[in-house]
Amino acid sequence: MTRNWLRINQSEGTLQLSWQRGQAAPRTAPTVPFEHPFDTPVLEEVRWYLEEYLNFPYGLEPDRARQVEQSFQIWGEQLFELIFRSSEEARTFFQEATRAGLDHCELAVSSDDPAVLNLPWELIYSPPPQGPSGAIVGGRVSLPQQSCRASRTGRNA
Prior knowledge:
Layout: E1 4-11, E2 14-21, E3 27-28, E4 32-33, H1 40-52, H2 62-84, H3 88-100, E5 105-111, H4 114-117, E6 138-142
Parallel strand pairs: 1-5, 5-6
Antiparallel strand pairs: 1-2, 2-3, 2-4
């Protein structure tokens, strides 16, 4: 059962993290500038590994696969830095979520930018000294609700 929520909201070139424990009111970190952390070749390597290599892991490119696997931690640390080292409040939220047990924490990412939603958020990795104190129990990536509303057209609009 999820008892903590870390929510990442990216909009208009900014990023904001909020944290909520149980039914308490969410706490929000200051908005910080957002810069996409990965270039096209990195994203292509992640895509290749997940969509092509894993479908047939006995292929002709085991060295490439090993290189990608070894890079996962580095890329995960970059995502961690982007989110949890962006402000003192963001660091505090991660520490509090860790103290409560990441196995009881859900990470949610909301953005109207497909490039942000396509980031490999599953790779987030907490480098030492925090160390991997457990995996976040679940995650979801979504568009903000206002972006999902369809406009009404036609005769009955």
